[in-house]
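pinned: reference chain
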Amino acid sequence: MDFVIFILAIATLIWGANFIIHQGEKIAIKLNIPEFIIGATLIALGTSLPEMAATVTATMNGKTDMAISNVIGSNILNISLVLAVIFIITTNIKPNRDFFAKNSSWTLAPVMLFILMSIDGKIEKFDGILLLLLMFAYILFLIKKAHKIEIEEIEEIKKDNNFSWIKTISLLLIGFILVIAGAHFTVESASAIARSFGVSEWIIGIVLISFGTSMPELVISISAVLKGKADIAIGNIIGSNIANITIVIGFSALIRDLPIDLTNQLVIFNLSTMVVATIMLIYITANKLYNISAGISLLILLAIFIKETIDNMFI
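pinned: its structure tokens
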């Protein structure tokens, strides 16, 4: 029963996030916010909403292991699963600019800062503020450097002349309610699963919750690539990974300190895997290795990550 509740909760979480993304785009366009800002920030932040909701909810409930592992697992899966699938299913990926080579390098900064902040065994409120400032710096970078990002969905929204503030705000509120409710039941059902199987909340967060909350990135990225919008797919993953650490961890740290057990071998392995995945992302984008070989390499990393996690599941 807990698995059924978990699946329904994740579905509700994703459904609510989609509501917020779509209505947020409508409001941004209505207010004449530049398209590239919508594409490079709103889409990426929107697909990070499930991680944020689940992580903040877990933090508020004192389940900090689940909160942190969800973010780490999501960042690993976004690269080793989502990006790998994109490379394998698409034989002709040719982003039309070198912007993403520079953009991807931003993914390493929050990861390294996060690890540095973790050395004392916890992420504190001050650390959270610094992470949020880093996200602000990244947005400034996008505003200064990014070219316009054309998104097919946004073009379709522009054609909609029936914009209504009442309808949009109402749907936006419904989205937030769905996200909050979905996050609550996701965390509670995941905790119940952890107890019933005798595994740690860290394991549940790094595998189950992170996989579920990575689904928006997977769906939106694959959809974008199939429409010939590889820039959007890659940019979505980059922006989402940056947002996961800077905003999700940042806000969670403001709620309460987030302890990290660096004496735990699995925690060290997961952090190391996140670093390796991030470096691989930068290497691939810098050298434009958008091909099946790169996809297979990322899947190998995913296999190592899954095997090590399973080996430590009942320790």
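why pinned: Residues 2-311 form a domain with the A middle domain of Talin 1 fold (CATH 1.20.1420.30). The chain has one domain: 2-311.
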